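Bug #2210: token dump truncated for Lrp/AsnC family transcriptional regulator?
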Amino acid sequence: MLTAIVHIDTEADRIPEAAAAIAEIPGVSEVYSVTGGVDLIAMVRVREHEELADIIADRVSKVDGVVRTQTFIAFRTYSQHDLDQAFALGLED
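Reproduced locally. Full output below:
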């Protein structure tokens, strides 16, 4: 499974509509409205690398109101459980 984190800039008056449309695209698992340098962050999860271009370049970037996207492909996933184990010193609580 490949995971891509997509930062999405939208027209200010189209954020909710763009988010809803992006969330409906197959392969997009979540869309977050966020503060900071971008308007939305979408999580895309696919089986094949080629699917990323179909979803991000051909679908997400063409949603009405989307101005720009920047994609980050994840190498590894760390859950809180994994992090707790990685930093544990082996001491009993």
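Output looks complete on our side. Strands lie at 2-10, 28-33, 40-46, 66-73. Marking as cannot-reproduce; reopen if the truncation happens again.
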